[in-house]
Each structure stands twice: as structure tokens, then as C-alpha cells.
Batch of 2 targets.
Target 1
Amino acid sequence: MATAMELQKDYHLPEQKLWAAVLHRALLDACGSVGKCGSYTRKQMNRISDDAIKWFTYKPEGFQTVCDLVGLDSDAVRQMALRLIRESHGKCLIHSVSARRRSDMRG
């Protein structure tokens, strides 16, 4: 299973470093560390966090591509990310984001 440390390991190719940083930033955003890199409103921070959680939860094609570019198994990254998100926010957050997404898809 992928670990947070794998996202920070020493990659040899600059492209791997870039895409590992994308994964790492998305994980920080999903875990609620959005405000650490800029001044955002609470609504903006929630939106960024929700979008990052959705990215890990629903694994769009871009997620698979980023994991491939870094050289990590996307299923392992997803499992690790969802575990860390649950630990930082609690299960109810992931379920509420999922419910909002289903609601958005209907309306």
C-alpha cells in the first residue's frame, strides 16, 4: 500500500517530482490544509477540500494518469488517501461530499 512517505521520496526525474507534488498537495487539501498556502475564504477552502476529496474518492482518469506518471499504484494511493482523510476529518465528511456530488449530478 502506498504511504504518505512514498509521495515524498527522492524521485530522479523532474516530472516525477512535479506529479508527486501534485498528489501531495491534493492530499493536503483533502485533509484540510488548504489555508496554509494562501488566504482563502472558508467557502473557498471547503470547495478546494471537497474537490480534492472527490478526486481521491472517484478516481477520474486524470488521477490514474498522475499516479502512473509518479510510478505509484492508483488503488494503493486511493486507499492511503482515504484513510488519511478519514483520520483528519472523520467518516462523515467523505459521505457528505459523496451525497453532495450525487445531488449535483441530479440537479
Target 2
Amino acid sequence: MRKLIAGAMVVACALLAPQRAAAQTSEVRVLASNGIKAVVDTKFDKTDPNIFKVKAFVDKVDEIWNLVRIEAIKAQGGRAP
């Protein structure tokens, strides 16, 4: 049971990391094994209490997550889409 809870926490943290990064900085750098894969512009109104619901913000989080996901698949020896 502890392993299941620990696994769920790791997944939750991994899913929230791009969201938090986009909310806290003006740009997010996605790293690859050979350097920086992409620099994603995340200039949003950081004072907006509803920032997590704004479509542009959600789209940026999805973009960051997809870049990270592709690198994770490559690192595991799989083929990225």
C-alpha cells in the first residue's frame, strides 16, 4: 500500500511540475540529454488568481508537458511520437 501511495505522489508531482514552472517564471527551459530542447515563453499575469483556468496558460502547460514527455520516452529507450 505504501508503494502505491508513493507512486501516486510521484505521478502527481510530475503532472504539477510544468504547471508550477509556467506560473512562476517568464520562460521555461526544457532540457534534453544533449542540451536545451526548447525555451517556452510563459509571460502571464502572475497576479491573476484564476491563472490556472486561463486557456492560454493551460495550452502552455500542455506544450511543456508534451516536450518533457517526449524526452522521457526517449530516455526509456522508446520511440517518441
